[in-house]
Write a structure and sequence with these properties.
The protein has 410 residues and is an alpha/beta fold. The protein has helices spanning 21-29, 71-84, 102-113, 132-140, 156-166, 169-172, 179-182, 205-216, 229-235, 250-256, 266-273, 277-285, 311-324, 358-370, 378-385, 389-392, 397-406; strands at residues 9-15, 47-53, 57-63, 90-95, 118-122, 145-147, 187-191, 220-224, 242-245, 263-265, 295-300, 329-334, 347-350, 375-377. Helix 12 (277-285) runs parallel beside helix 17 (397-406) and helix 13 packs parallel to helix 15.
Length: 410
């Protein structure tokens, strides 16, 4: 099975038109991934290419349109290119020595302000050698530099090695989803309701990833439906270290799980794994400040047709309206269609972002913080609105402490 995008290191290729971004991507992947032409502006939309870059593992290259594109259509292409910054784990800025100027400096500044590890590639070195003074200035800033020729394949192996060395530590040493909460030789019970939301013949991605994470951590794993939980607990000689449930079954599973056994939800696990759990816990507390008529944005990373009992469009709005005691003004955003201006929202509620990489979710959290808008996620919202927030945070002492410290002043 191919690794999902969320587990791949996202490598963005940036630069002017016709500096050889697409040719370089084809040379790196040894495939004709992107269309190559002498005509400037051949690449119009970001082109994604997943591959295995050993020994690093699964990566996703993103070839972008030229940052210097012009005209009304060109401006739209540039905006799409800039959106790629949001999900870039490692940036490759491609230029030639005679073209280095304001565009390159602005792109480099953007990457560094976002704290994205960056490699500078001077391409077409079979035609133009980079100037020594330029190399010296960039080297003084401790920026990795590689000289390549996509045409002759010179420097391609060196670029691969530089990518391996420059990959961010939090990708190489990615935290566990759940295994660290359970431990080697210990057991977890995963409660997976089979209802209208469950894809026929499959489990949803967070459930699959949690199972694999537990196996990688040498933990035992029992997967049951919600009505099977009492029987599963009775058959275990030793209580499980953790019970994890689909958030929609929180109330039922909390009632069936003895209080001494820690309980949480898949969505809360992904608030930690894909985002910032502490920030999202603080965001959930803003639910208490909501009033009827307040604007709330519910954002989902995936674009899908909502079913009759959809969690984002039906269930969460119903539970929130009940908690507030009035009708909120709830709006929805799907995929990467996120409002440019979020300042008027009183709360943003995001899905677990299991299909994204962590940087893109962290970028949205940062945008919310900059706009002074609380942000939380589905699982935390459900637990809070159903009155089992403290129970669901039991496995996370730091997050639980944030909530307990806040309670007296609420």
């Amino acid at each position: 099975m191919k690794s999902p995008k969320s587990f791949r290191l996202h490598i963005g290729l940036f630069g002017r038109r016709n500096v050889g971004k697409s040719s370089l991507l084809n040379a790196l992947t040894q495939q004709e991934v992107s269309i190559v032409s002498d005509v400037a502006g051949t690449t119009t939309d970001p082109v994604e290419k997943p591959m295995e870059l050993l020994p690093l593992g699964p990566v996703l290259f993103i070839d972008t349109a030229g940052m210097d594109d012009v005209g009304s259509l060109g401006e739209k292409r540039v905006q799409k290119t800039k959106a790629v910054f949001e999900r870039t784990d490692l940036g490759i800025l491609i230029s030639t020595s005679e073209l280095w100027g304001d565009f390159e400096e602005a792109t480099l500044r953007e990457l560094r302000e976002r704290e994205i590890p960056t490699i500078i590639v001077f391409n077409k070195t079979d035609l133009h050698q980079p100037q020594a003074c330029l190399l010296n200035n960039l080297t003084a800033d401790k920026i990795p530099i590689v000289e390549t020729s996509a045409t002759t394949k010179a420097g391609i192996d060196s670029l691969r090695q530089t990518i391996l060395k420059t990959a961010p530590d939090d990708y190489i040493n990615r935290p566990a989803i759940v295994a660290d909460l359970v431990g080697p030789g210990e057991a977890a019970i995963l409660v997976v309701p089979i209802d209208k939301e469950a894809p026929k013949g499959r489990l949803i991605l967070p459930q699959v990833q949690s199972i694999r994470d537990l196996l990688d951590g040498d933990s035992f794993c029992m997967v049951v439906k919600d009505q099977q939980l009492p029987e599963a607990l009775s058959r275990m000689n030793t209580p499980p270290k953790l019970v994890v449930t689909d958030s929609q079954a929180f109330t039922k599973v909390a009632a069936l799980t003895p209080p001494e056994i820690p309980l949480t939800g898949f969505s809360i696990l992904f608030a930690r794994f894909q985002g910032d759990l502490n920030a999202m816990v603080r965001g959930a507390m803003a639910i208490d400040q909501l009033k009827a008529g307040d604007r709330v944005l519910i954002a989902e990373a995936c674009s899908h047709h909502p079913i009759q009992e959809d969690i984002g469009t039906v269930k969460i709005p119903k539970w929130l309206n009940q908690y507030v005691g009035g009708k909120l003004q709830i709006e929805h955003a799907r995929g990467r269609d996120f409002p440019a201006d979020i300042s008027s929202y009183k709360l943003i509620i995001h899905c677990g972002a299991c299909m994204w990489n962590r940087r893109e979710m962290l970028s949205r959290i940062l945008r919310a913080e900059q706009a002074d808008v609380p942000i939380t996620n589905y699982g935390l919202t459900i637990a809070y609105s159903l009155g089992i927030f403290e129970r669901a945070l039991q496995p996370f002492p730091d997050a639980l402490n944030i909530y307990k410290k806040w309670q007296p002043s609420s």
